[in-house]
Amino acid sequence: MSRLRRLWVTGVALLALVGCAASTTGRQSQGEAPALELPQQSLLTSSMRQQPVSGWTTTVDQLGLPPGTVVRPVGNIGDRGVFLGITDEGWWLLGLDVTNGQRTFGPTRLGPAGDATDFNCLVNGPPMVLCVRQGPELSVPSTAWVIDTSSGELTFDGPTDLRVTGPQDQPRLEQIGDYAIAGVTGKGMYGVGPRGELTWFVPGDGMLSAQFATWDRDTRLSTFAVQGGGGVADVVFSVVDGKVVKPSVPQEVQLGQAIVYPKGIGYEYTRTGDFAERVAFFDNTGKKLSEPEPGGTLETRSVDLPMVGSKSNDRVFALDGRKLLELPASGAPPNARLIGPRFFVATDADHRVWQQFDLLTGETGKTCEGDSLGFYYIASDGEVAVALGDGTPAQGIDLATCGTLWSLPGSAPNEAKEVWKVHTTLVQRTNDRLFSLVSPK
To answer: Is 52 helix (H, G, I), strand (E, B) or coil?
Structure first.
């Protein structure tokens, strides 16, 4: 459902404590509301309270790769990190157990670089990984490689219609959770099979909804995606098998925009003859869970927990309908992030001022300013955020105080440093060396 207008009032966020969130795991006394169950998150297993030091270490040479190979992660299957080795001559795929640095498969040679203009690798139904090389001529098929990461076996090497980028009328690859899908604008979404072929098909506009353009986060993603339906209602479908979720609603209800959350779906809707916008939440089978009152619209930049916006306020809900926070209406569409039990909301135009709330205690925390919780965010252990910084590949930000705890040294001349999160481990590359970053204790 297209939003016709939004009226916002800038203000300092106020917390409305809801009597539901005393504990996520403790037993409930008879008659009490069940404890708030926060979405599962992939947080770092090593504390980032102190500046981390190198744990396991490996090199390009030890991994069996040519000198000068640049190694970067393309995904993970649990603790099995999948890495791509990149040279001017071509690509290699390999696996590392990120808990100990041991190689789990590969390196498997994919092929020469040739005249490739685009290249990408995606997990496509664990343990399989799909890599696609696209050349400059769009009339020529791309090349696909499919690797079984449990054995390192190259199970397919051949042509594919898939594109990494390109015209809207050709299938463009997208990664949703642990699956690759392909969208054709104006037509719909396809599944991708074990030979890089198109499989199931879901009609629609072939474009993922705005929620999939948000920054990386720790919450484990749903196996459902959303595309426009070519009319008013969005289409929610499984990226595993293409099954469409059809919410159970009365005939007079017109569904609109949808957002998928870790364990359910939110839909905006109106009723025949009444254009007031409302919101309802459903489980992943389409069964209705709750309907917040009064109405409003779904905020597309809050995908860990539902946020419903209106002219007077923004409210954060659990899928069962419990209101967790109530905030004044903001001057810009809010951006939100969940880290552990802390919920961060940025309502300024640049999304650099993050007010935090503890969902378990109802307390308002410090306001963190800067890009560390936005575009620069890398990972967190639940208490400390790790983010890219000016002149440093990573720095630690205390979430309780918003202060900087440490900063890694920046790159020296002729030195390249990168830091990534791979599952629940922090990994750094410095030139031809890969190593984990762990607590010094």
So the answer is: coil
Tell me what the pLDDT averaged over the chain comes to.
91
Q: Name the nearest CA neighbour of 179 among 128, 105, 216, 217.
A: 128
CA distance 101 to 336: 34
Q: HSE, CB side, 13 Å, CA atoms: give it for residue 426.
A: 31
Q: Do residues 253 and 271 make contact, with C-beta atoms less than 8 angstroms apart?
A: yes
Instruction: Please name the residue ranges forming H helices in 125-223.
Output: none
Burial of residue 179 (CB within 10 Å: 0-12, 13-18, 19+) is buried
Under 8 Å CB-to-CB from 153, ≥6 apart: which residues? Answer: 147
In order of 244, 354, 366, 388, 439, the CA distances from 405 in angstroms are: 46, 18, 15, 13, 13
288-290 vs 297-298, strand pairing mode: unpaired
The Cα–Cα gap between 179 and 6 comes to 35
Q: What is the pLDDT of residues 239-279, one digit of tens each?
A: 999 999 999 999 999 999 999 999 999 999 999 888 899 99
Residue 167: CB atoms within 10 Å: 10
Structure letter (DSSP) for residue 99: T
Q: Quick one: DSSP state of residue 141?
A: P
Question: What is the separation of C-alpha 146 from the centre of its chain, rounded to a whole number of angstroms?
Answer: 23
pLDDT, one tens digit per residue, over 295-317 is: 899 999 999 999 999 999 999 99
Angle at 171 between CA 166 and CA 176, to 5 degrees: 105
Whether 319 contacts 309, CB under 8 Å: no
Please give the model's pTM, rounded to 2 decimal places: 0.91
